[in-house]
Amino acid sequence: MILLWSTAALATGFILDLIFGDPPAIPHIIRFVGKIVSRLEKLFLKVGKSPGVQFCSGLCFTCVVILISTGIPFALLYFAYGIHPVAGFLVESFLCYQLIAVKDMRVESMRVYDRLKADDLDGARWAVSRIVGRDTDRLDRAGITRAAVETVAENTGDGVASPLFYLMLGGAALGCFFKSVNTMDSMVGYKNEKYLYFGRAAAKLDDILNFLPSRLCALVMIFATALFRFDAKNALRIWRRDSRNHASPNSAQTEAVCAGALGVRLAGPAYYEGALEEKLYIGDDTRPIEDDDIIRANRLLYGTAILLFILAMGVRICCMAVIFTVMNN
């Protein structure tokens, strides 16, 4: 039964990510998608400059990227499972491993923490610039820490919960579909002059795909907050109050839980490409944010990821049990 092998591949991929993360030496499917986006973007942007033309061009661009980024993995899985279930399992395990980003987020954020502990603020600014989109050159110690904590919290949603959700529903092929959209959003989903209309289709589709997983992740993170003896009551309160304090309908879901759990204030005004962008705060400023909050955010990341994985496996096992029962009646 392919579903059994696919479920085993999901478990294997998750465990591999926890162990190995994302070694630069290993070819990565997301970097492959990124190259596709970069090349096709230049081609489709040349079509025209009017808002309507740019939107239609961006919509076609989005469809083509999805077709390539999902079609190739689907074909690989189809042929691999056709050869032998073990071959399909190996291919799907590798794809699942590359679609989940737990350890890599920890590695990147802890690089920021290590630089802060060494009192190397320039090094910390460089390290945090690798994982955030805002300008980092004028961030102070608290700003660097806040940026790292926000990114860990947000990544728990779109880097862990959403991939697991779609891997659970449709295996690696559907996971690749989600990641192709998510990658496009991160590259062309900006509200600036260049991408306002061109990237709108990708950005809206990413919002739709992340809508349910981000809220599920927030609820699971609140449970993880209780397990780790953070302030679960405050996490729930801040989530209910501040989960809409973001331009994205999804990003503040996990950020609000994290802010409430740690008792700190996240988000707020930030500089992007030299311009100050006014953003709402998330959480209450009950205490100053500190370096160790990066470690605490990572504990929430891992706790939430493991709980989500258990939930995903439970759903898969229940589905297999139902199918087995129906087939034998």
UniProtKB/TrEMBL annotation:
Membrane topology field: Multi-pass membrane protein
Repeat as UniProt keyword: no
Protein name: Cobalamin biosynthesis protein CobD
Keyword Glycoprotein: no
Superkingdom of source: Bacteria
Keywords on record: Cell membrane, Cobalamin biosynthesis, Ligase, Membrane, Transmembrane, Transmembrane helix
Function: Converts cobyric acid to cobinamide by the addition of aminopropanol on the F carboxylic group.
Record family assignment: Belongs to the CobD/CbiB family.
Pfam families, sorted: CobD_Cbib
One BP annotation, GO: cobalamin biosynthetic process
Entry's Gene Ontology cellular component terms: plasma membrane
Pathway: Cofactor biosynthesis; adenosylcobalamin biosynthesis
Subcellular location: Cell membrane
